[in-house]
Sequence to fold (510 residues):
Amino acid sequence: MSTPRSRNIRVTEQTRPVLPRHARLKFDDTRQRWVILAPERVLAPDDIAVEILHLCDGERSLAAIIDQLAVKYAAPRDEIGADVTAMLQDLADKGFLADKGFLAEPREAPP
Amino acid sequence: MSEAAGTPTDTPIDSLAVLEARGTTAEAFGIPLAVLAELTHRCPLQCPYCSNPLELERARDELTTDEWKRVLGELAGIGVLQIHFSGGEPAVRKDLTELVRHATDVGLYSNLITSAVLLTRGRLRALADAGLCHVQISFQGSDAASADRVAGFRNAHAQKLDVARWVRELDLPLTVNAVMHRQNLHQLPDIIQMAVDLDADRLEIANVQYYGWALKNRAALMPTLAQIEDATRIVEEAQARLKGTLAIDYVVPDYYALRPKKCMGGWGRQFFNISPTGKILPCHAAETITGLHFESMRGNRSIASIWRTSDAFNRYRGTGWMPEPCASCDYREIDFGGCRCQAFALTGNAANTDPACTLSPLHERIFRTAEAEASGEVSRFVYRNFKGGTPEADTHDDA
Fold:
Protein backbone atom coordinates (compact mmCIF):
# COMPACT_ATOMS: atom_id res chain seq x y z
CA MET A 1 0.00 0.00 0.00
CA SER A 2 1.37 3.40 -0.88
CA THR A 3 0.76 6.73 0.72
CA PRO A 4 0.28 9.62 -1.69
CA ARG A 5 1.77 12.94 -0.83
CA SER A 6 -0.69 15.39 0.70
CA ARG A 7 1.39 18.41 1.79
CA ASN A 8 2.55 21.46 -0.10
CA ILE A 9 1.09 20.33 -3.38
CA ARG A 10 1.40 22.51 -6.42
CA VAL A 11 -1.28 21.31 -8.79
CA THR A 12 0.01 20.86 -12.34
CA GLU A 13 -1.10 18.80 -15.33
CA GLN A 14 1.24 16.04 -14.15
CA THR A 15 -0.54 15.81 -10.81
CA ARG A 16 -2.57 12.65 -10.29
CA PRO A 17 -5.09 14.00 -7.81
CA VAL A 18 -7.05 11.94 -5.35
CA LEU A 19 -8.87 12.73 -2.14
CA PRO A 20 -6.80 11.64 0.88
CA ARG A 21 -8.19 9.11 3.33
CA HIS A 22 -9.43 11.85 5.65
CA ALA A 23 -11.46 13.74 3.03
CA ARG A 24 -14.48 11.72 2.00
CA LEU A 25 -16.81 12.55 -0.84
CA LYS A 26 -20.25 11.35 0.13
CA PHE A 27 -23.83 11.84 -1.01
CA ASP A 28 -25.80 13.20 1.92
CA ASP A 29 -29.25 11.62 1.69
CA THR A 30 -30.78 13.98 4.24
CA ARG A 31 -29.77 17.17 2.42
CA GLN A 32 -29.80 15.61 -1.06
CA ARG A 33 -26.39 16.92 -2.00
CA TRP A 34 -22.76 15.89 -2.23
CA VAL A 35 -20.49 16.81 0.67
CA ILE A 36 -16.83 16.37 1.50
CA LEU A 37 -16.29 15.20 5.05
CA ALA A 38 -12.96 16.39 6.46
CA PRO A 39 -11.51 16.86 9.94
CA GLU A 40 -14.02 19.06 11.77
CA ARG A 41 -15.25 20.43 8.45
CA VAL A 42 -18.04 19.70 6.05
CA LEU A 43 -17.48 21.17 2.60
CA ALA A 44 -20.22 21.64 0.05
CA PRO A 45 -18.76 21.21 -3.44
CA ASP A 46 -20.86 22.53 -6.31
CA ASP A 47 -21.93 20.29 -9.20
CA ILE A 48 -18.84 21.00 -11.28
CA ALA A 49 -16.49 20.37 -8.37
CA VAL A 50 -18.28 17.07 -7.71
CA GLU A 51 -17.86 16.03 -11.34
CA ILE A 52 -14.14 16.86 -11.21
CA LEU A 53 -13.67 15.03 -7.91
CA HIS A 54 -15.28 11.89 -9.31
CA LEU A 55 -12.52 11.88 -11.93
CA CYS A 56 -9.80 12.28 -9.29
CA ASP A 57 -9.04 8.61 -8.78
CA GLY A 58 -5.27 8.82 -8.31
CA GLU A 59 -4.83 7.13 -11.70
CA ARG A 60 -5.78 9.87 -14.17
CA SER A 61 -3.41 12.77 -14.53
CA LEU A 62 -4.85 16.27 -14.33
CA ALA A 63 -4.03 16.63 -18.05
CA ALA A 64 -6.28 13.65 -18.82
CA ILE A 65 -9.05 15.03 -16.63
CA ILE A 66 -8.93 18.39 -18.40
CA ASP A 67 -8.95 16.68 -21.81
CA GLN A 68 -12.01 14.71 -20.84
CA LEU A 69 -13.93 17.75 -19.56
CA ALA A 70 -12.94 19.90 -22.54
CA VAL A 71 -14.38 17.31 -24.92
CA LYS A 72 -17.52 16.77 -22.88
CA TYR A 73 -18.33 20.47 -22.62
CA ALA A 74 -16.91 21.41 -26.03
CA ALA A 75 -15.11 24.24 -24.31
CA PRO A 76 -11.65 25.77 -24.82
CA ARG A 77 -9.10 23.57 -23.05
CA ASP A 78 -7.27 26.59 -21.59
CA GLU A 79 -10.35 27.87 -19.84
CA ILE A 80 -11.40 24.52 -18.42
CA GLY A 81 -7.82 23.83 -17.39
CA ALA A 82 -7.49 27.08 -15.47
CA ASP A 83 -10.78 26.55 -13.61
CA VAL A 84 -10.09 22.93 -12.72
CA THR A 85 -6.53 23.68 -11.59
CA ALA A 86 -7.69 26.58 -9.41
CA MET A 87 -10.39 24.48 -7.80
CA LEU A 88 -8.00 21.62 -6.98
CA GLN A 89 -5.27 23.98 -5.79
CA ASP A 90 -7.75 25.53 -3.39
CA LEU A 91 -8.59 22.07 -2.08
CA ALA A 92 -4.88 21.22 -1.80
CA ASP A 93 -4.16 24.41 0.13
CA LYS A 94 -6.82 23.39 2.63
CA GLY A 95 -5.08 20.01 3.03
CA PHE A 96 -7.82 17.99 1.34
CA LEU A 97 -6.05 16.78 -1.79
CA ALA A 98 -3.37 14.15 -2.28
CA ASP A 99 -1.17 13.62 -5.30
CA LYS A 100 -0.17 10.15 -6.40
CA GLY A 101 1.98 11.69 -9.12
CA PHE A 102 4.54 12.72 -6.55
CA LEU A 103 5.23 9.16 -5.56
CA ALA A 104 8.32 8.05 -7.41
CA GLU A 105 8.18 4.53 -6.08
CA PRO A 106 5.75 2.80 -3.79
CA ARG A 107 6.83 2.58 -0.17
CA GLU A 108 5.65 0.15 2.40
CA ALA A 109 2.96 1.23 4.82
CA PRO A 110 4.31 1.43 8.36
CA PRO A 111 4.20 -1.88 10.23
CA MET B 1 -11.61 20.76 23.80
CA SER B 2 -13.09 21.68 20.55
CA GLU B 3 -14.61 25.11 20.52
CA ALA B 4 -14.02 24.82 16.79
CA ALA B 5 -16.52 22.05 16.36
CA GLY B 6 -18.95 24.37 14.62
CA THR B 7 -16.87 27.44 14.10
CA PRO B 8 -16.83 29.10 10.72
CA THR B 9 -13.29 29.57 9.50
CA ASP B 10 -13.76 30.04 5.78
CA THR B 11 -15.85 32.19 3.52
CA PRO B 12 -18.37 30.21 1.51
CA ILE B 13 -17.94 32.06 -1.74
CA ASP B 14 -15.73 29.53 -3.48
CA SER B 15 -16.88 26.31 -5.04
CA LEU B 16 -15.97 24.39 -1.91
CA ALA B 17 -17.86 26.14 0.78
CA VAL B 18 -17.72 25.35 4.45
CA LEU B 19 -21.35 24.72 5.28
CA GLU B 20 -20.98 26.10 8.80
CA ALA B 21 -20.07 29.51 7.47
CA ARG B 22 -23.49 30.12 5.96
CA GLY B 23 -24.91 31.16 9.27
CA THR B 24 -28.24 29.60 8.41
CA THR B 25 -27.37 25.98 8.98
CA ALA B 26 -30.26 25.19 11.28
CA GLU B 27 -32.79 26.80 8.98
CA ALA B 28 -31.32 25.37 5.81
CA PHE B 29 -30.27 21.98 7.08
CA GLY B 30 -32.40 21.33 10.13
CA ILE B 31 -30.01 19.06 11.95
CA PRO B 32 -26.40 19.83 12.95
CA LEU B 33 -23.68 18.51 10.68
CA ALA B 34 -21.54 17.46 13.62
CA VAL B 35 -22.29 16.37 17.16
CA LEU B 36 -19.96 16.17 20.15
CA ALA B 37 -20.24 12.96 22.16
CA GLU B 38 -18.73 13.34 25.61
CA LEU B 39 -18.33 9.66 26.37
CA THR B 40 -17.14 10.18 29.94
CA HIS B 41 -16.03 12.86 32.35
CA ARG B 42 -13.25 10.61 33.66
CA CYS B 43 -9.78 11.79 32.68
CA PRO B 44 -6.27 11.11 33.99
CA LEU B 45 -5.36 14.78 33.40
CA GLN B 46 -6.41 17.59 35.73
CA CYS B 47 -6.17 20.68 33.50
CA PRO B 48 -7.37 23.74 35.40
CA TYR B 49 -9.29 25.06 32.36
CA CYS B 50 -11.20 21.88 31.57
CA SER B 51 -14.38 22.58 29.61
CA ASN B 52 -16.35 19.98 31.58
CA PRO B 53 -18.77 21.23 34.24
CA LEU B 54 -17.61 21.58 37.86
CA GLU B 55 -20.08 18.86 38.77
CA LEU B 56 -18.68 15.93 36.84
CA GLU B 57 -20.94 13.02 35.94
CA ARG B 58 -20.00 9.73 37.59
CA ALA B 59 -18.88 6.57 35.80
CA ARG B 60 -21.81 4.53 37.13
CA ASP B 61 -24.28 6.90 35.45
CA GLU B 62 -22.61 6.91 32.01
CA LEU B 63 -24.46 5.60 28.97
CA THR B 64 -23.78 1.95 28.26
CA THR B 65 -22.18 0.71 25.05
CA ASP B 66 -25.59 -0.22 23.68
CA GLU B 67 -27.03 3.18 24.57
CA TRP B 68 -24.17 4.98 22.80
CA LYS B 69 -24.67 2.73 19.77
CA ARG B 70 -28.33 3.65 19.75
CA VAL B 71 -27.33 7.33 19.89
CA LEU B 72 -24.91 6.92 16.95
CA GLY B 73 -27.51 5.15 14.84
CA GLU B 74 -30.13 7.76 15.63
CA LEU B 75 -27.74 10.62 14.79
CA ALA B 76 -26.80 9.11 11.44
CA GLY B 77 -30.46 8.48 10.70
CA ILE B 78 -31.47 12.12 11.17
CA GLY B 79 -28.64 13.50 9.04
CA VAL B 80 -25.69 14.16 11.34
CA LEU B 81 -22.51 13.61 9.30
CA GLN B 82 -19.71 13.76 11.85
CA ILE B 83 -19.22 12.59 15.40
CA HIS B 84 -16.58 13.98 17.74
CA PHE B 85 -15.68 11.44 20.42
CA SER B 86 -14.59 13.50 23.39
CA GLY B 87 -14.76 13.57 27.18
CA GLY B 88 -13.17 13.75 29.73
CA GLU B 89 -10.81 11.37 28.10
CA PRO B 90 -12.74 9.15 25.66
CA ALA B 91 -10.06 6.44 25.78
CA VAL B 92 -11.00 5.79 29.41
CA ARG B 93 -13.96 3.94 27.89
CA LYS B 94 -12.95 0.36 27.12
CA ASP B 95 -15.58 0.28 24.35
CA LEU B 96 -14.08 3.21 22.40
CA THR B 97 -12.96 1.05 19.46
CA GLU B 98 -16.33 -0.66 19.36
CA LEU B 99 -18.08 2.72 19.28
CA VAL B 100 -15.80 4.02 16.53
CA ARG B 101 -16.55 0.90 14.49
CA HIS B 102 -20.25 1.42 15.01
CA ALA B 103 -19.94 5.05 13.91
CA THR B 104 -18.21 3.82 10.75
CA ASP B 105 -20.88 1.18 10.18
CA VAL B 106 -23.71 3.71 10.37
CA GLY B 107 -21.83 6.12 8.06
CA LEU B 108 -20.54 8.75 10.48
CA TYR B 109 -17.16 10.46 9.98
CA SER B 110 -15.39 10.10 13.32
CA ASN B 111 -13.03 12.46 15.11
CA LEU B 112 -11.21 11.50 18.30
CA ILE B 113 -10.53 14.39 20.67
CA THR B 114 -8.05 13.05 23.18
CA SER B 115 -5.39 13.80 25.77
CA ALA B 116 -3.56 10.81 24.25
CA VAL B 117 -1.99 9.59 27.48
CA LEU B 118 -4.01 6.37 27.57
CA LEU B 119 -3.39 5.40 23.94
CA THR B 120 -0.94 2.68 22.99
CA ARG B 121 0.27 2.10 19.46
CA GLY B 122 -1.80 -1.07 19.28
CA ARG B 123 -4.96 0.62 20.44
CA LEU B 124 -4.47 3.46 17.99
CA ARG B 125 -4.05 0.98 15.17
CA ALA B 126 -7.24 -0.79 16.23
CA LEU B 127 -9.05 2.57 16.16
CA ALA B 128 -7.70 3.29 12.68
CA ASP B 129 -8.81 -0.17 11.54
CA ALA B 130 -12.25 0.55 13.00
CA GLY B 131 -12.51 3.50 10.63
CA LEU B 132 -11.40 6.45 12.76
CA CYS B 133 -10.98 9.43 10.41
CA HIS B 134 -9.08 12.06 12.42
CA VAL B 135 -7.26 12.52 15.71
CA GLN B 136 -7.01 15.71 17.74
CA ILE B 137 -4.49 15.72 20.58
CA SER B 138 -4.43 18.39 23.26
CA PHE B 139 -1.08 19.83 24.32
CA GLN B 140 -0.56 21.92 27.45
CA GLY B 141 2.62 23.61 26.26
CA SER B 142 5.83 23.06 24.30
CA ASP B 143 8.16 21.91 27.06
CA ALA B 144 7.58 18.86 29.22
CA ALA B 145 8.02 20.37 32.67
CA SER B 146 5.54 23.22 32.30
CA ALA B 147 3.10 21.20 30.21
CA ASP B 148 3.04 18.36 32.76
CA ARG B 149 2.46 20.89 35.53
CA VAL B 150 -0.63 22.29 33.75
CA ALA B 151 -1.94 18.78 33.08
CA GLY B 152 -1.24 17.71 36.64
CA PHE B 153 0.09 14.46 35.19
CA ARG B 154 3.67 13.26 35.15
CA ASN B 155 5.20 12.45 31.76
CA ALA B 156 2.03 13.47 29.91
CA HIS B 157 3.87 15.62 27.35
CA ALA B 158 6.33 12.91 26.30
CA GLN B 159 3.47 10.43 25.86
CA LYS B 160 1.52 12.91 23.74
CA LEU B 161 4.51 13.36 21.44
CA ASP B 162 4.77 9.58 21.00
CA VAL B 163 1.08 9.19 20.22
CA ALA B 164 1.14 12.12 17.79
CA ARG B 165 3.94 10.40 15.83
CA TRP B 166 2.01 7.12 15.76
CA VAL B 167 -1.04 8.96 14.43
CA ARG B 168 0.97 10.19 11.43
CA GLU B 169 2.67 6.81 10.94
CA LEU B 170 -0.81 5.33 10.59
CA ASP B 171 -1.56 8.03 8.00
CA LEU B 172 -4.32 9.52 10.11
CA PRO B 173 -4.72 13.29 9.94
CA LEU B 174 -3.58 15.05 13.09
CA THR B 175 -4.80 18.19 14.75
CA VAL B 176 -2.71 19.64 17.55
CA ASN B 177 -4.90 21.51 20.01
CA ALA B 178 -3.09 23.99 22.23
CA VAL B 179 -5.03 25.78 24.94
CA MET B 180 -3.34 29.10 25.65
CA HIS B 181 -3.26 31.29 28.75
CA ARG B 182 -0.98 33.70 30.59
CA GLN B 183 1.39 30.99 31.77
CA ASN B 184 2.10 29.44 28.36
CA LEU B 185 1.50 32.15 25.74
CA HIS B 186 5.24 32.86 25.60
CA GLN B 187 5.65 29.34 24.18
CA LEU B 188 3.45 30.04 21.16
CA PRO B 189 6.26 30.11 18.54
CA ASP B 190 7.61 26.82 19.91
CA ILE B 191 4.13 25.27 19.90
CA ILE B 192 3.69 26.20 16.25
CA GLN B 193 7.06 24.66 15.44
CA MET B 194 6.14 21.56 17.45
CA ALA B 195 3.01 21.12 15.33
CA VAL B 196 5.11 21.42 12.16
CA ASP B 197 7.67 18.93 13.48
CA LEU B 198 4.88 16.48 14.35
CA ASP B 199 3.65 16.76 10.75
CA ALA B 200 0.23 17.89 11.99
CA ASP B 201 -2.36 18.91 9.42
CA ARG B 202 -3.98 21.44 11.66
CA LEU B 203 -3.16 23.47 14.72
CA GLU B 204 -5.94 24.81 16.87
CA ILE B 205 -4.71 27.64 19.07
CA ALA B 206 -7.50 28.22 21.52
CA ASN B 207 -7.30 30.84 24.21
CA VAL B 208 -9.02 29.68 27.36
CA GLN B 209 -12.72 30.47 27.55
CA TYR B 210 -13.75 31.26 31.08
CA TYR B 211 -16.55 29.03 32.34
CA GLY B 212 -16.58 26.26 34.91
CA TRP B 213 -13.06 25.17 35.83
CA ALA B 214 -11.42 27.98 33.87
CA LEU B 215 -13.55 30.58 35.64
CA LYS B 216 -12.41 29.10 38.94
CA ASN B 217 -8.81 29.51 37.72
CA ARG B 218 -9.26 32.78 35.88
CA ALA B 219 -6.79 34.79 37.96
CA ALA B 220 -4.04 32.25 37.24
CA LEU B 221 -4.83 32.01 33.53
CA MET B 222 -5.93 35.42 32.25
CA PRO B 223 -3.43 36.74 29.70
CA THR B 224 -2.32 40.34 29.46
CA LEU B 225 -3.48 42.48 26.57
CA ALA B 226 0.15 42.71 25.40
CA GLN B 227 0.39 38.90 25.29
CA ILE B 228 -2.74 38.71 23.16
CA GLU B 229 -1.46 41.33 20.74
CA ASP B 230 1.82 39.41 20.39
CA ALA B 231 -0.03 36.14 19.90
CA THR B 232 -2.23 37.54 17.17
CA ARG B 233 0.80 38.85 15.31
CA ILE B 234 2.65 35.52 15.68
CA VAL B 235 -0.37 33.53 14.49
CA GLU B 236 -0.97 35.73 11.46
CA GLU B 237 2.69 35.48 10.44
CA ALA B 238 2.63 31.69 10.85
CA GLN B 239 -0.64 31.32 8.92
CA ALA B 240 0.93 33.06 5.95
CA ARG B 241 4.27 31.24 6.20
CA LEU B 242 2.75 27.75 6.63
CA LYS B 243 -0.05 27.90 4.08
CA GLY B 244 -0.44 24.46 2.51
CA THR B 245 1.65 22.84 5.26
CA LEU B 246 -0.24 23.54 8.45
CA ALA B 247 -3.70 25.07 8.78
CA ILE B 248 -3.97 27.23 11.90
CA ASP B 249 -7.26 28.06 13.58
CA TYR B 250 -7.14 30.75 16.23
CA VAL B 251 -9.68 31.36 18.98
CA VAL B 252 -9.17 34.76 20.62
CA PRO B 253 -10.02 35.42 24.27
CA ASP B 254 -13.17 37.45 24.25
CA TYR B 255 -12.61 39.39 27.47
CA TYR B 256 -10.40 41.68 25.40
CA ALA B 257 -12.62 41.71 22.32
CA LEU B 258 -14.91 44.51 21.22
CA ARG B 259 -17.59 42.23 19.89
CA PRO B 260 -18.68 38.96 21.50
CA LYS B 261 -18.13 35.64 19.79
CA LYS B 262 -21.00 33.96 17.98
CA CYS B 263 -20.92 31.23 20.55
CA MET B 264 -21.77 27.76 19.18
CA GLY B 265 -22.93 29.55 16.03
CA GLY B 266 -25.90 30.73 18.08
CA TRP B 267 -27.76 28.76 20.75
CA GLY B 268 -29.52 25.74 19.26
CA ARG B 269 -28.75 26.71 15.68
CA GLN B 270 -26.06 24.34 14.47
CA PHE B 271 -24.66 22.35 17.35
CA PHE B 272 -25.51 20.09 20.22
CA ASN B 273 -23.52 17.78 22.42
CA ILE B 274 -24.38 14.71 24.41
CA SER B 275 -23.16 14.41 27.99
CA PRO B 276 -21.79 11.16 29.46
CA THR B 277 -25.21 10.37 30.95
CA GLY B 278 -27.05 11.12 27.72
CA LYS B 279 -28.25 14.68 28.19
CA ILE B 280 -28.71 16.62 24.95
CA LEU B 281 -27.09 20.04 25.49
CA PRO B 282 -26.84 23.21 23.38
CA CYS B 283 -23.15 23.47 24.36
CA HIS B 284 -20.82 21.67 26.73
CA ALA B 285 -21.04 24.48 29.30
CA ALA B 286 -24.84 24.86 29.12
CA GLU B 287 -25.41 23.12 32.43
CA THR B 288 -23.66 25.99 34.21
CA ILE B 289 -26.87 27.94 33.56
CA THR B 290 -29.26 27.10 36.37
CA GLY B 291 -33.00 26.93 35.79
CA LEU B 292 -32.86 25.09 32.49
CA HIS B 293 -33.99 21.48 32.22
CA PHE B 294 -31.98 19.39 29.75
CA GLU B 295 -33.62 16.25 28.43
CA SER B 296 -31.79 12.94 28.11
CA MET B 297 -31.75 10.33 25.37
CA ARG B 298 -32.84 7.99 28.16
CA GLY B 299 -36.25 9.66 28.25
CA ASN B 300 -39.05 8.79 25.87
CA ARG B 301 -38.27 11.40 23.22
CA SER B 302 -36.10 11.11 20.13
CA ILE B 303 -32.95 13.19 19.88
CA ALA B 304 -34.41 15.04 16.88
CA SER B 305 -37.52 15.91 18.86
CA ILE B 306 -35.45 17.18 21.82
CA TRP B 307 -33.36 19.30 19.42
CA ARG B 308 -36.39 20.79 17.69
CA THR B 309 -38.85 21.36 20.50
CA SER B 310 -37.33 21.17 23.99
CA ASP B 311 -37.65 24.25 26.19
CA ALA B 312 -33.91 24.39 26.84
CA PHE B 313 -33.10 24.65 23.13
CA ASN B 314 -35.92 27.05 22.36
CA ARG B 315 -35.22 29.38 25.28
CA TYR B 316 -32.43 31.31 23.55
CA ARG B 317 -33.02 30.41 19.92
CA GLY B 318 -33.22 33.14 17.32
CA THR B 319 -33.64 36.74 18.51
CA GLY B 320 -37.10 36.87 20.10
CA TRP B 321 -35.81 36.30 23.65
CA MET B 322 -33.40 39.23 23.52
CA PRO B 323 -33.66 42.25 25.81
CA GLU B 324 -31.97 45.55 24.93
CA PRO B 325 -29.33 46.40 23.87
CA CYS B 326 -29.37 43.16 21.82
CA ALA B 327 -33.00 43.40 20.66
CA SER B 328 -32.49 46.42 18.44
CA CYS B 329 -28.81 45.81 17.63
CA ASP B 330 -27.69 45.53 14.01
CA TYR B 331 -25.44 42.63 15.02
CA ARG B 332 -28.17 40.54 16.66
CA GLU B 333 -28.20 37.96 13.87
CA ILE B 334 -24.41 38.07 13.48
CA ASP B 335 -23.32 37.22 17.02
CA PHE B 336 -26.70 36.38 18.63
CA GLY B 337 -25.73 38.39 21.70
CA GLY B 338 -22.59 36.34 22.34
CA CYS B 339 -22.37 33.51 24.83
CA ARG B 340 -25.28 32.64 27.12
CA CYS B 341 -23.07 30.78 29.60
CA GLN B 342 -20.72 33.74 29.91
CA ALA B 343 -23.66 36.12 30.30
CA PHE B 344 -24.97 33.93 33.12
CA ALA B 345 -21.58 33.50 34.77
CA LEU B 346 -20.81 37.24 34.79
CA THR B 347 -24.25 38.84 35.15
CA GLY B 348 -26.42 36.15 36.74
CA ASN B 349 -28.87 36.24 33.83
CA ALA B 350 -28.23 34.19 30.71
CA ALA B 351 -30.47 36.48 28.64
CA ASN B 352 -28.29 39.52 29.24
CA THR B 353 -25.88 40.78 26.62
CA ASP B 354 -22.57 38.91 26.90
CA PRO B 355 -20.26 41.33 28.76
CA ALA B 356 -17.62 40.62 26.10
CA CYS B 357 -19.65 43.06 23.96
CA THR B 358 -18.80 46.76 24.26
CA LEU B 359 -22.55 47.48 24.33
CA SER B 360 -22.94 45.58 27.59
CA PRO B 361 -23.07 47.93 30.59
CA LEU B 362 -20.65 45.53 32.28
CA HIS B 363 -18.06 45.48 29.51
CA GLU B 364 -15.73 48.08 30.97
CA ARG B 365 -15.76 46.39 34.36
CA ILE B 366 -14.97 42.98 32.81
CA PHE B 367 -12.12 44.45 30.84
CA ARG B 368 -10.65 46.06 34.00
CA THR B 369 -11.04 42.80 35.93
CA ALA B 370 -9.17 40.94 33.22
CA GLU B 371 -6.37 43.49 33.21
CA ALA B 372 -6.09 43.43 36.99
CA GLU B 373 -6.06 39.62 37.16
CA ALA B 374 -3.56 39.38 34.32
CA SER B 375 -1.10 41.56 36.23
CA GLY B 376 -1.86 39.95 39.60
CA GLU B 377 0.14 37.59 41.77
CA VAL B 378 -2.00 34.46 41.48
CA SER B 379 -0.29 31.67 39.54
CA ARG B 380 -1.27 28.49 41.41
CA PHE B 381 -3.96 26.34 39.86
CA VAL B 382 -6.97 24.56 41.24
CA TYR B 383 -6.78 21.18 39.51
CA ARG B 384 -9.86 19.64 38.02
CA ASN B 385 -11.09 16.42 39.64
CA PHE B 386 -14.18 14.66 40.96
CA LYS B 387 -13.57 16.09 44.45
CA GLY B 388 -14.47 19.59 43.30
CA GLY B 389 -10.87 20.64 42.69
CA THR B 390 -7.53 20.43 44.48
CA PRO B 391 -5.33 23.50 44.99
CA GLU B 392 -1.92 23.12 43.41
CA ALA B 393 0.05 23.51 46.65
CA ASP B 394 -1.76 20.53 48.20
CA THR B 395 -0.89 18.38 45.21
CA HIS B 396 2.77 19.22 45.69
CA ASP B 397 2.57 18.35 49.38
CA ASP B 398 1.16 14.96 48.43
CA ALA B 399 3.98 14.25 46.02
Summary: Chain A has one domain: 17-99.
